[in-house]
Amino acid sequence: MRNPFQSIRWRLQAWHGLFLLVVIAGFCYMAYQLAWNNQSRRIARNVFEAERHLFHPLFEAARPEGADEDAPVSSSMLLERLRAHQIELPPETLLRFESTESGFAYFVLYDTDGSVLMQSPNLPPDMAPLPNDGDDYDEDMRTIDNRREMARYNAKGVSSIVGRDITPEKDDLHRLGLSLAASGLGVWIVGLLGGWWLAGRALKPIHTISQTATRIAEGNLTERIDTAGNNELHQLARVLNDTFEQLHAAFERQRRFTADASHELRTPVTILLAETERILKRERKAAEYQEALTTCRESATRMRNLIQALLLLSRQESAPPQRESCDLAKVVGEAVAQLEPLAREREVHLQTDLPHLACQADPAALSILASNLVANGIQYNRPGGSVAVSLQQRNGSAVLTVQDDGPGIPQEDLPHIFDRFYRADKARTGTSGHTGLGLAIVKTIVENHQGTLAAESPDGAGARFVVSLPVEPTPQEPV
Q1: What's the pLDDT score for residue 318?
Q2: CATH number of the domain to which 246 belongs
Q3: For the chain, which terminus, N or C, has the lower number of CB atoms within 10 Å?
Q4: Which residues lie below 8 Å from residue 242, measured CB to CB, with a gap of 6+?
Q5: Class of residue 74 by CB neighbours under 10 A (exposed 0-12, middle 13-18, buried 19+)
Q6: Measured on CA atoms in the order 248, 250, 254, 260, is the torsion positive or negative?
Q7: What pLDDT was estimated at residue 428?
Q8: 327 and 314 share a domain?
Q9: Which residues of the chain have pLDDT under 70?
Q10: What would the 3-class secondary structure string for the chain be?
Q11: What is the count of structural domains for the chain?
């Protein structure tokens, strides 16, 4: 059984749920503490108010008869009157301290020896002792069970405890705690559901990418991932699409290489088999054997040239150029010099205008480019014709021009002459061992160098090939 936490969605949900739970619990705790603090301050005010309602009538009752109303009453005077039981509280004060319902107030007054001087009828039986840390006076606002009280210790006067029942406030806080817990749980559940939905929405592009990649891996190399959008996942999708595009192109090159090789090798192989079968049917004269072997050698030579051209084209398509600083005039000049014997054989004059021009390029690939273009001009020229090779720098690019004055190329064939094995009219058909890959190789080399290639052929005015290569290569964007 698969562990659900192996899923990114489940892991995101778990972390999201934990974080949300901590946040909600912290909020509920703070809200509860804030409510409790507010309640505590309100209860303390109620206790102080009860003290005031108790001691004000006590001091008034302790005032001697005939004394000035503004004259202060001392604590010792109050203590003496309480000891003599000469003080009675007014009925409205007694009424405040008689109730036993929730929230009732109570009091007790102590003598210096700890004996009770006066107490309310509703005084709880489990009263705690007065605070006494050895000082003459001490006080403490304390909570005992369901009571909140102010205890004041006076070693030389009246000590007191005035408090009230806080059951209603505790009940209110209990209900508030349940409400906060229920609300927090509801918010947490809604947050989990929302987090699950958001995680699904966020991870949906990943699921789509995975499904598309699976279909591509199964062989559907033309399918691509939808890249509508501009977030990180869509940027990843575009990178993957570029990768799939390169993979598709590699497979296409492999398929095309196989198809082209099998197509072009079929004829020479057929010739070899036919000649060998014919010559072996019966005894032949030496001249006939020599003729058959010559035919076989020509077919084998064609196969060798074709295989070499296909391998060269494949390498140019799959490997980036090995750039180095080189003199383009020297590279082109050496390629032209190697073709001088072929030009003399075909009675074609070679003209060159090659000024010094340094550039960053692959000299071996450029030598092949120049050789193919010049050889093409020689092969498809007329006796007494010429091939002009020139080089110049224009707008930061090196421009190589190869022009012949042969029969030219029909206009309808110009868009296709750089296709593999494409041949135009009979005047330019490679019947003498040509593979039909020369211009395709030229095109691939130019593209590898980020250049441009154009072919022109005015009617009856020969063919003109113009190659434009950047002197400094343009940096490629990283994939």
Answers
A1: 66
A2: 1.10.287
A3: N
A4: 479
A5: exposed
A6: positive
A7: 42
A8: no
A9: 1-6, 66-71, 134, 227, 229, 253, 257, 260-261, 263-264, 267, 305, 309, 316-319, 422-435, 460, 473-479
A10: CCCHHHCHHHHHHHHHHHHHHHHHHHHHHHHHHHHHHHHHHHHHHHHHHHHHHHHHHHHHHHCCCCCCCCCCCCHHHHHHHHHCCCCCCCHHHHHHCCCCCCCCEEEEEECCCCCEEEECCCCCCCCCCCCCCCCCEEEEEEEECCEEEEEEEECCCCEEEEEEECHHHHHHHHHHHHHHHHHHHHHHHHHHHHHHHHHHHHHHHHHHHHHHHHHHHCCCCCCCCCCCCCCHHHHHHHHHHHHHHHHHHHHHHHHHHHHHHHHHHHHHHHHHHHHHHHHHCCCCCHHHHHHHHHHHHHHHHHHHHHHHHHHHHHHHHHCCCCCEEEEHHHHHHHHHHHCHHHHHHCCCEEEEECCCCEEEECHHHHHHHHHHHHHHHHHCCCCCCEEEEEEEEECCEEEEEEEECCCCCCCCCHHHCCCCCCCCCHHHCCCCCCCCCHHHHHHHHHHHCCCEEEEECCCCCCCEEEEEEECCCCCCCCC
A11: 3
Q: What is the pLDDT of residue 259?
A: 75
Distance CA 360, CA 383 (A): 37
- What is the structure's pLDDT at 280? 82
Report the distance separating Cα 460 and Cα 94, nearest Å. 132
The per-residue pLDDT for 27 is 94
pLDDT at residue number 437: 76
How much is the pLDDT for 171?
93
From 301, 319, 337, the end of a domain falls on: 319
d(CA 61, CA 86): 9
Give the Cα separation of 372 and 437 in Å (integer): 9
Tokens (6 digits) for 349: 């004059």
Find out whether 108 and 129 touch, Cβ atoms under 8 Å: no
Parallel/antiparallel/unpaired status of strands 349-353 and 386-394: parallel
- Please count the residues of the chain: 479
The answer on 155 and 13 residing in a single domain is yes
- Residues 148, 135 share a domain: yes
Report the pLDDT value the prediction gives residue 2, as an integer from 0 to 100: 59
